[in-house]
Amino acid sequence: MAGKREKPEDIVLKLRQVEVLQGQGKSVQEGVRQIGVTVQTYYRWRKEYGGMSRDQLKRLKELEAENTRLRRAVSDLTLDKMILAEAARGNY
């Protein structure tokens, strides 16, 4: 059974909470326990979102959406080009 998915904004806040707790002298395990995730999840999140601010996260989401849109446009144009090339050869 899959667990609940955290929003990236919430992940950044939770990572920041653990950093604050570490600054107060608590261990990573104690901080992770307080935010309610496993140590493995914490390190996976830190690898993906570590050091990001909310503004950077927002920009990342915008760039990912733009990248998806551009990939779709390129694939559509490539398909159109292949269809036209095949029709020009007379293999229709």
TrEMBL record:
Entries under SUPFAM superfamilies matching the protein: Homeodomain-like (SSF46689)
TM ranges: none
Keyword annotations from UniProtKB, A to Z: Coiled coil
Keyword Coiled coil: yes
Coiled-coil region list: 53-80
GO annotation (BP), single: DNA transposition
Residues in the signal sequence: none
Full protein name: Transposase
A GO molecular-function descriptor: transposase activity
A Pfam family: HTH_Tnp_1
